[in-house]
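Supplementary notes (optional reading)

For those who missed the lab, this is the record we used. Protein: Putative conserved plasma membrane protein. Length: 211 residues.
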Amino acid sequence: MIISVRFLTVQIYRLHRFMAENYHKILFLNLTLAAITGTIHWLLLNHPTFLDQLRENLRNYPLGVIFGVTTVALISCLLLYALHRESTQKTLIRSRSAIRLKYIDFILLCLSTGLREATERHLRPGTSRVDQLDSFHVAVETCLDRFREDARRLFHGLGCSRYATLQQLEEHFRIDQRRPDGGWIGEEILKLKRSSKSLLSEKALKTLLTK
């Protein structure tokens, strides 16, 4: 009984998720079916001999009827294809934007982590103040140079190409970075975010790089 209830719950959740993700397509399909049904109903009420006349026309003018039906079907297919292509393009744009914003969050968090580690490593008691400041200055410059180099990938080469595939963009904006100690920073650093929103927009980042 518990297994059956769990299975039913999972299926209902999947159905709900499918309808939530494709509600605009479902709405368009329902409106189309309603329009077709309403048109047929109106024809049968106002033109009772419509079906008989259609059979007679099909018998007398088969090529004309077939051509008309084929034309309507072709126009409908082209319309559906155009709507599908527009939806696909919007999804692609959102996916591209998500990849780029995720990369921006990653390099910003890497910069923040690098600056924190530089502070903990070089500004510690027990060393002379001049040595501390010199080593800290070098570490900060290294972090900033790495950040600028990573950020420029967004606005040069494959990063700004409209023809790059999602796989190429994911490979170009790799979520990993070598640490100064030889280790690697990976996608787990994104868990430091406290909000689902992006930390910085592309426009703001571009403005920051020009200063």
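If you only remember one thing from this example: The two ends are 65 Å apart (CA to CA).
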